[in-house]
Amino acid sequence: MRTAIIYISKHGTTEKVAKLIAEKQKHKDITLLDLRSITKPLIESYDRVIIGGSIHAGMIQKRIKSFCEDNLDLLLKKEIGLFICCMMKEKQNEQFENAFPQKLRDHCKVKGCFGGEFVFEKMNFLEKLIVKKVAQTDISISQIDYEAINLFVDEFWKNKKN
Ligand SMILES: Cc1cc2nc3c(=O)[nH]c(=O)nc-3n(C[C@H](O)[C@H](O)[C@H](O)COP(=O)(O)O)c2cc1C
């Protein structure tokens, strides 16, 4: 059984989470696919697909959204896990709902909202301005929900040997 973890990350947090998920199941056949460089992954060759992105101004990356829409029929034949990284905990459910098509959300085996990070060193001027204004902070912070990641991984591979 092969698993693809398909993701996009702006400042590295979603990538960190994707790698952590793969690391936690390192004896399994898992391929990490960054959708910025591999624009058309061959999902036919995977049995399970995990898709993750991050939220900026309320939205997941456009490429994640269109990837899900364009490949919906194929994805509905796979075991699916969906996750987002975001900092507004009070909005995470709404942002998750907006991020993925309803059919895919209904079909997916596991959903995750894994918190996120503000990495000021990687932000451009405008991003710094927005975060300072909206989140009232000008220092880097990490609020990754490692517990939620563990639960996601346990549930996704529950009773699976490979
Ligand atoms: C410019 C900017 C806008 C953001 N907007 C939102 C938002 O609307 N909602 C939210 O929950 N988090 C928001 N975030 C937090 C990101 O989702 C968080 O930084 C996440 O960890 C980014 O992951 P990435 O580095 O993988 O892209 C924003 C972050 C930045 C820098």
Structure in words:
- This protein has 7 helices and 8 strands; from the N terminus they run E-H-E-E-E-H-H-E-H-H-E-E-H-E-H.
- With 162 residues, the protein is of the alpha/beta class.
- It has one domain: Rossmann fold (3-Layer(aba) Sandwich), CATH 3.40.50.360.
- The strands form 2 sheets. Strands 1, 2, 3, 4, 5 and 6 form a 6-stranded mixed beta sheet that branches.
- The site of flavin mononucleotide (FMN) has 24 residues, from helix 1, strand 3, strand 7 and helix 6.
Mean of the pLDDT scores? 97
What would you call the shape? globular
Stretches with pLDDT under 50, minimum 5 residues: none
Give the C-alpha Rg: 15 Å
Question: What is the string of helix and strand elements?
Answer: EHEEEHHEHHEEHEH
Outline the biggest β-sheet.
6 strands, mixed
The CATH topology is Rossmann fold
CATH architecture: 3-Layer(aba) Sandwich
Report the bound ligands by name, code or SMILES: flavin mononucleotide
Number of domains: 1
How many distinct helices?
A: 7
Number of strands: 8
The name of the CATH superfamily reads Flavodoxin domain
Q: What is the straight-line distance between the termini?
A: 6 Å
In helices, the fraction of residues equals 25-40%
Strand proportion, as a percent range, falls in 25-35%
CATH class: Alpha Beta
Backbone structural class: alpha/beta
